[in-house]
Amino acid sequence: MVDAVVSFVVQRLGDYLIQEAKTLGGVRDEVESLKKELEWMQCFVKDAEAKQAGNDLIRQWVSDIRDIAYDAEDVLDKYMLSVTPKKRQRLFAYSIKELNLFSKGKEKVSLYSIGKEIETLNKRLGEVSRRCESYGLQNIIDKSEAEKHELHILKQLRRVSWFDVEENPVGFEDDTDVLLSKLLAGDEPRRLVISIYGMGGLGKTTLAKKLYHSSDVKNKFECCAWVSVSQDYQFQYLLLRIIKSFNIISSAEEGGLENKSEEDLERCLYKSLQGKTYLMVLDDVWRKVDWENLRRAFPDNKNGSRVIITTRNREVAERSDEKTYVHKLRFLRGDESWLLFCEKAFRGTNREKGLEKLGREMVEKCDGLPLAIVVLGGLLSTKTPQEWRVVQDFEINVEKLIRLFVAEGFVPQSEDRTMEEVAKDNFDELINRSLIQAEERSKNPTPSSVQSSCRRQAIYSETPSFFWLHHSNSLSRSLLFFNENVTLFEERDLAPLFKRFLLLRVLEIEESGYFSRMLFDNRLHNKKLGKLIHLKYLGIRGTTFIRDFPSSIFNLPGLQTLDLSRCIVQLPPETDMMRELRHLIGKLIGTLPIENLTNLQTLKYVRCKSWIRVNTAKLVNLRELHIVGGDGQSMGEMEFSFESIAKLKNLQFLSVNLSDGTVVLPQSSNAFASLQPLSHCQRLVDLRLTGRMTTLPKDMHVLLPNLECLSLKVVLPEENPMPALEMLSNLTILDLNFYRDSGDPYHEKKLSCRAEGFPLLEILLLDAVEVGIVEWQVEERAMPMLRGLKIPSDIPNLNIPERLRSIPLPAVWEFDESKYAYDLWLLLHHPLI
After folding, report:
1. CA 485, CA 462: separation in Å to the nearest integer?
2. pTM to 2 decimals?
3. What is the per-residue DSSP string for 224-240?
4. Of 236, 310, 508, 793, which is least surrounded by CB within 10 A?
């Protein structure tokens, strides 16, 4: 962590040297020296940090480095607060000595002060370096033989014992049946690698043990071995453990293995397994190369030998071997999750009826992850019924988290991609490695957990925020308040926010609207908001109407994200001056002064009549756009068309909802007549349309070749829509919600999907209760990747193929627009509009 802090500060110092070259003037050399010294420290601070747990000297040294790094950042940020841009221009010519001689005037004193503070920081770094030498810390940091022995013991403790078997693990019955059939299949004599993958805590090792100890498996294979690989291992030692685990060589031969080379050990293993039917379990494999290095030592005897690999990494699972069966481990079902929780939380005792409802709610939030359920159950097993109610979970929105990371400067700039795209790739990599899960949760802290030195604080508490504002670190860079008890707020409680937290980069407050109105309606607070000049992310999520937008917000030159999600906002003309703005979110009404916001990437939600008046020529970086509401008769002769979208070359997500939240408005009758203009948006991957569309273009796959997600809530086209849709070769999610006009007669209709259609489709949602669909014909080899299917049970007499009936429902989070529907209703029905 300290290594990351130092790296981040070094980068920021470099940015200051580039961006504020003239401003820093005579202190530039001092800043450069500080940057170089921290770079040298960074070279071995990572190794030191890894060893600080067992050595007080190293722990103190690492702590000193961290403090200096933080203080360096504080010095520069404070300086930026004290000197306005006009004043900075008059300072660049002065050196430190000159400022010392005639340090009259606030501006010169500010630059003189920063110079002295940086000199002090450089002296502190010098002292830290001398301590490192005096106390011989470099020698301590180097690995000793004793430390290597301790590391070996730690690995041994972490290694899973193959003989430690859970008697009746919850779930896995269907997984066991499938995988046993693969292990025992007589029609596949070649060596087969079976990869079990999924996120940590899902039960991969438990399932592998269940297979390994199966009597049928023991009867089939002549020799079996189990080895935990893990992330850090020595290849020679791994081979040695595999050979010993198979127990197929004599004691005399085993004694001479220790001194053999890797090549000799590979030959020994190969010869020992030749001609035998073997089962090898490699538990906790992290890299694809791990099996690639090992497989040459495992002969393909053409006798049904098998290798089982458990891994968190999807790439490892899918590309381990030429002959591989990949099994993605599922999450527990609701009944299984509850059974497992009861085993751990109640431990055979009678459970109180009052706790069952609360327990089921918390188990549901674990999303079927066994480890989370076991941990939760173990935690609650020692708690009183009153303490159960204290335990709470909270969702973290990845999209918002990415914007927070960008605002804090944690994401490096790339030449050909935005910082948001870089961050998204990083999250995707973590998901592929099963290190994080969609809808991850975190526990609720208490006031006692606040650390005065903490610089980034997320507060989930019933305690009113003014308590935290008085007791949190004034040097904080991020403050996020959730579940706010707004009834305990008073206007005077806002004062610490603008007096103590002037270095904030991120401010996020989620509440019911009281805070929003108090902040925006009070002129004094409006003015003070502009003092937070370092602010890059401002999120005020409260249901309110903002007609008089605070003018001081335009004094925030670096603001990147303005998130007023539940606020109805009328933007002032000055909005066009916020040239660094990347994400603008709110219920936006009236004129949209955004035509010069060239960095804008996200815009939601805008009224249709407002959008069609915008000149989009300069919105070259817009990637996400939400347009809502047909606006009824107020549109007059102006009507939405995709021509207003055609210039957005980088657009990736487009949602157009021409309804009032319940029915499609009559003015939208021709709005979706042609999708041709969208052919200019070649990066479009997600399209969601609600309106009137009587026909689908037959060349839809040509117009939108990269489309991955499509949602259509439209009148059922006269012709079968499937032939046009099934040619979208990259489509993975399809949501079709068909209805008929009130005046249209009822006609029975059929849908049909041809072979080879929808080659990559994974999720299909079909809602057509009102339109009279009575049959759905799906040819063999159509939709080969389908894994989630949702069809209303109340469609009368619907005849669907048998093979589709067994496909389960998709997870709710995979395609849930309920929150969006509420936002739309709020925008269109607010009494103040």
Report:
1. 6
2. 0.62
3. EEEEE--SS--HHHHHH
4. 793
